Amino acid sequence: MELIDYAKLEEAARRIRLLVMRMCVKAKTGHVTSSFSCMEILVALYHGGILRFDTKDPKWESRDRLILSKGQASPGLYATLADFGFFPVTDLDDFAQVNGKFGVHLQNTVPGVEITSGSLGHGLGIAAGMALAARMDRKLFVTVVILGDGECHEGSIWESAQFAGHQRLNNLVAVVDRNGMASMEFTENEVSVEPLDNRWKSFGWRVLRVDGHSFEEIFEAFHGFRTRRYPQPLVIIADTVKGKGAPSMSDHPGWHGRSPQGDEEVDKMIRELEGGELYV
Amino acid sequence: MFDEKTQRKAFWSRVFELAKENRNIVVVSADQNAPVLDHNFIPWFPDRFVNVGIAEQAAVLVASGLALEGKIVFTHAITPFITLRVLEQVKMQMGVMKIPITLVGVGAGLSYLDSGPTHHALDDISAMRAIPNVQIHNISDDVMAGAFADIACQMSAPRYVRLDRRGFPDIHEPEEDFLIGVSVVRDGNDLSIIGTGNMVHRAIDIANALAEQSISVRVIDLYTFPVNAKALIAAIAGAKMVATIEEHYLSGGMGSAVLEVFADCGINVPVTRIGADPALGYTYQYGGREKLQEIFGLDKENATKVIMNAWSP
Q: Is A34 in CB contact (< 8 Å) with chain B?
């Protein structure tokens, strides 16, 4: 663990947030706050070396599978993949525009992206199917799926969770980006998802709860995940802040699914991202 | 029961044979069995029979994940639950992502006669037809059922195989190319009756009855949607009138699909559609399939009457 260069990861998270902000500002659309809440998770998985992959061969058979089930956070994943070299960073300039290669919700036509998503509740079941196929064929890759907390309202999440728990798919990791909010409201004001830990536990999962903006805690949660020491699938409930990095748009339902507009607003957010203290 | 001739026996027997040769074949079931699965597939390949429980959404999702990793997946449930219940999974995984899984719905039309509207499937073809990239195969006999097990293994498209609950006499030849989607099962040159699924057999009965009145009727089995327009137009060539018959609501069903093709291709032939009138809604009446067919006017007597009223050579 001491080999991890946290400063470098923090720098990457800041750099990718700026990419997300710029692409969404230019496109006048995109889920900025949903992308920011899972930014440290994405950076830990890619830049932090948790996942195995090959940027030159995105379909490499032994790669780990990363399923972004909360497909509205596509700018976060696109910018992470571009920053890592799956495709040119300049492709981000055409986000959700004429001749653009991708838009507001995730498309599997983009190098490094496994599934098309945006309709919620689908990713966990697909990931379970992939993990089951790996077990049938004795393949060693691990499947990681990132879920939204509002997404956990979907019944299909729990159909899939009970299946993965029953099958003891210990080559499957779910990360719940627990940023506290669905689209229009805080989950607990809408339909509560807590106690989230106990819900997953009762479905047969091993549960860890971490600060989703702490690289240290994310790495700790993933420690040894490839060894399959535990019989159950693992869910990491990552407590996060929706809009993390730009305090002016954080933790406010009104910012769901939109990007800052107008010079004043944009400058303010960029200043926050560039200068703010992310990890206090 | 096990010796009874049924479409699902024909279909799953073929899947079982194919699974002996191909270890990538997997069956995902939403708590739905079949005698061949119980007695053959599961004992031979317990690891390749994945039961997700009564959770059809998970069935389609898990099947999709398996297929993305190269598995050939048959996803099994009662017809309404593997179509309408999971329509948005069908749209995303099969329509948008084009993952070549095969949904197998048992219980076409009024197959689950006394189970009521929850189990009747009179609306699934029109619903599934709305999703691009999905091939719908409405099976009419055991030969076709087996053939589509083979075709599904090619993984060339997402498919929905719609099986009747009971068996019917074989009307197709094993050598037939079922990728065409349309075939003439009885020749005749006055009028053409297009049937689908079990109603192809009703059409043959009607044709035989009309032959006694010296009316020569061609019977066409239209079993794949989207319709192969060229093959359908070729099949009805020379007909002075076309009747369609389906055990399905008229709204968006097979007859609608035929009218769309005729309108789009400028085929000017009178068409009479026989099917369940959606204005009659859902039925909670009992007494067997024939009785239910009478309620919707699909019985031989009424269907013949409708065709004869429209027939004016």
A: no
